[in-house]
Amino acid sequence: MEKEELKANQDALERRAKKKPSAKNNKLTMVPLYCKGCGLCVHICPTGTLQLYDDPKNKFGASVKIDAPDFCIGCKMCELQCPDFALFVNYEEEKKEGGQ
């Protein structure tokens, strides 16, 4: 792993340590086929939800994984920053009592 990747992961873990898991109803989805492992999403994520890792299967040599989905606050910064449209944040509707 390169020095930049290690720094990005360290920063992500430090941000995660400062946050509590979110109770929001959002779902972070990743399309691994689209990810080139640039790490922009890892750097921009305010909660350290994402991690960059070496991936020999990826032609670019690295990929991003959703390491702590419960920490996602649904800000969509990763989705907006990703140049390859590999990340999506979807909001699930809260279930109302009585099935409505």
Supply the CATH architecture: 2-Layer Sandwich
Would you tell me the structural class of the helices and strands?
A: alpha+beta
* Number of separate strands: 4
Query: So what's the overall shape?
Result: globular
Summarize the structure.
The protein is α+β, with helices and mostly antiparallel strands and 100 residues long. The chain has helices spanning 3-18, 40-44, 77-81, and strands at residues 26-30, 50-54, 62-66, 87-91.
List the defining traits of the structure above.
Alpha-Beta Plaits, two-stranded antiparallel ribbon, 100 residues, globular
How would you explain this protein's 3D organization?
It contains 3 helices and 4 strands. Strand 2 and strand 3 form a beta hairpin. It has 100 residues and is α+β, with helices and mostly antiparallel strands. The longest helix has 16 residues. The protein has a single domain, classed as Alpha-Beta Plaits (2-Layer Sandwich), CATH 3.30.70.20. Helix content is 26%, strand content 20%.
